[in-house]
Specification:
8-stranded mixed β-sheet; about 625 residues; alpha+beta
């Protein structure tokens, strides 16, 4: 976007993806349009190759060919490729009003700019009719909208609201006026030129719009579907009135994937990059299971144009050999949206020290006996190994979104259908971030022995009951949360906080990635990856990996655990039976264990530091108390 309305690429994946409203300066509210309009922009380019992202594993999971980065805006100039690209937006909410006279106007979603107050004369109150055209204010969007659980969104029905039912015939101009008590809904009055008037008091009551005969019209304005245009399918569900900036208006569904190497370490990095980029073309030419040499020769000539013929032939031979080994050694995974089975491949790759310095995934593994454990027995017995990830490439793709609830159980295809109309679009918006990380593999035997202790299961059961109770009340599927998961999750939060204290990292630049069995007990996973993947320079110079080396990591982990023994909110925090949203945390608050939302995979829920260090009454509930 140009400087007047700047949006970072990462923000267009989350939190401001397709279907979300963005509040720009000067009271302007725009909604990110669907992929159909994005596709029109890409078709105008001579080549969209620079925006393509190849991540085969994630593409198979989501059923697409590839991914594309949101285009960045470039000022036109000499040798500037693809200038003046902008993200398509529509204008929403449609209802706007004048802050001086209160005149309300419903504009088109395709209106290029905010309208100016037309200066309607009013018999009471202030009027802009006596002002010259150039001094009249631009209208600003109202803050009330209506959404439904199916993801639809529409304007608040002001005309039906003020008339307590169906809109009568005629134009019926409306006016919004806020009195001295405009901080409350009763201080905001909507009046009609016919004489009807009503405040906004009670507008947020349950099923209030259904009582006046208004239900969801099925509007999806980001896709151009509106009941007023006759191209929306009536939904009929009850509408929920919210403010446009409410947190439950938009929940982006992002699927992330860590790149796993599919090539042997001996393969030259340049060859890996060329084959990753052209893999689909190279393997589509199989003849009776044999790769087409002609395709490899074409790709070689295109990517190494000034190379001598003999050298090009060697490149072709190396590429054919690497491709044949990959096809023989790496079976194609089944397409599944199971996060647990998807992460198992990453878990095994980390433990197996996959990758190399010539690829975007490089792991070295250190066993616990390599660390100095004098005074740091938690490191010695609490973990089995530490993985140092020198290189990580993470792809984050926007699949869809929901409203009201973070998850509604819809399939991947249903999610994708909510951000595009055309079935011919075979890509999704995504970003790629590179970083590094430290992986902790917990001691499986010690963890299993701790998790079956009666005091542990009793404490965990109360937290899981709170968590699943809130999910059941929203009609969501229950989750089988285990003590191991809660321990690993809380440990990750405490460690991220400690890294930010001792190493200078901003906590928002670090993320957690939990590897733990919740769906299946086969092939147990007990680990967590703390990594830098913020899309900027933080974490790109080896700082986090250095902290994972012996003589550094022992102190950091030890201090993280010891600092968890006291919170400034104690004894209220440690003795809590439920705090946070829907009481989904126990001993965890902003003073000890909560993190910025970008760091946490569970929205700062399912945390309890007592599982690490115990309580004053029951110290045995703490996992690390077994060793310290």
């Amino acid at each position: 976007m140009p400087a007047k309305k700047p949006v970072r690429r990462a923000q267009l994946i989350s939190p401001w993806g397709i279907g979300q409203m963005i509040n720009f300066p000067k009271d302007e509210s725009l909604m990110v349009a669907g992929l159909d309009l994005w596709e029109e922009r890409f078709r105008t380019l001579d080549s969209a190759e620079e925006f393509r992202i190849k991540e085969e594993r994630l593409a198979r999971r989501l059923g697409v060919t590839d991914f594309r980065m949101p285009p960045d805006f470039r000022e036109p100039g000499k040798d500037v490729q693809n200038p003046s690209l902008m993200i398509p937006f529509i204008r929403f909410p449609r209802w706007h009003y004048c802050t001086r006279c209160g005149h309300m106007e419903q504009i088109s979603i395709y209106e290029p700019r905010k309208p100016v107050c037309p200066g309607i004369p009013f018999t009471t109150g202030r009027s802009c009719a006596d002002l010259p055209q150039n001094r009249r204010q631009r209208l600003i969007p109202v803050r009330f909208i209506a959404i439904c659980q199916e993801g639809h969104i529409q304007d608040f029905p002001f005309r039906q609201w003020v008339h307590n039912g169906p809109q009568p015939e005629g134009l019926h101009r409306l006016r919004l006026r806020a009195g001295r008590s405009s901080g409350t809904l009763s201080g905001i009055e909507i009046s009609c030129e016919c004489g009807a008037h009503k405040t906004m008091a009670g507008a947020f009551n349950e099923k209030i719009l259904t009582r006046i005969g208004v239900t969801c019209s099925g509007d999806r304005p980001w896709l151009g579907e509106e009941a007023s245009r006759g191209n929306a399918t009536h939904c009929g569900k009850d509408l929920i009135v919210v403010q446009k900036g409410a947190s439950n208006v938009y929940f982006p569904h992002v699927r992330s994937s860590i790149y796993l190497p599919l090539w042997e370490r001996s393969v030259d990095r340049r060859i890996v990059e060329v084959m990753e980029k052209n893999w689909r073309y190279l393997t589509n030419g199989l003849d009776n299971g044999v790769l087409s040499r002609a395709r490899f020769e074409f790709v070689t000539e295109y990517n190494f144009p000034n190379t001598p013929t003999a050298q090009q032939e060697r490149y072709v031979d190396k590429m054919l050999e690497a491709a044949e080994r990959r096809l023989n050694l790496v079976p194609q995974p089944e397409i599944s949206d199971s996060e647990e089975s998807y992460r198992r491949m990453e878990y095994e790759a980390i433990l197996g020290e996959a990758g190399g310095d010539n690829q975007d995934f490089y792991v070295t593994k250190k066993y616990i006996n390599e660390y100095d454990c004098r005074g740091y027995l938690a490191i010695m017995q609490g973990f089995s190994s530490i993985g140092l990830l020198h290189k990580i490439r993470e792809t984050r793709a926007l699949v869809g979104f929901t409203r009201l609830l973070p998850e509604n159980g819809s399939s991947i295809e249903d999610k994708k259908n909510n951000i595009m109309l055309s079935r011919q679009i075979d890509w999704l918006p995504a970003i790629v971030v590179k970083g590094e990380g430290v992986f902790f593999e917990f001691n499986r035997q010690e963890l299993n022995d701790w998790a079956i202790q009666p005091e542990v299961t009793t404490r965990v059961a109360s937290l899981v009951r709170n968590y699943n109770g809130s999910r059941a009340g929203r009609g969501q599927q229950l989750r089988a949360i285990t003590p191991e998961f809660l321990l690993i999750h809380t440990f990750a939060h405490l460690l991220i906080n400690q890294f930010s204290f001792e190493c200078g990292y901003g906590s928002s630049s670090l993320r957690e990635r939990i590897y733990c069995n919740l769906e299946s007990t086969d092939d147990e996973m007990h680990g967590v990856l703390i990594y830098t993947a913020s899309g900027d320079s933080e974490g790109s110079l080896g700082g986090l990996v250095k902290q994972g080396n012996p003589d550094n990591l022992e102190k950091i982990v030890y201090h993280a655990i010891e600092n968890a023994r006291w919170c400034s909110g104690d004894p209220v925090c440690i003795d809590s039976r439920g705090q946070g949203p829907n009481s989904c945390n126990l001993a965890a608050c902003h003073n000890c264990a909560l993190l910025p939302e970008t760091c946490c995979e569970e929205s700062n829920m399912l945390l309890d530091r007592a599982l690490l260090i115990g309580t004053l009454d029951v110290p045995a509930v703490g996992y690390f108390n077994r060793f310290i």
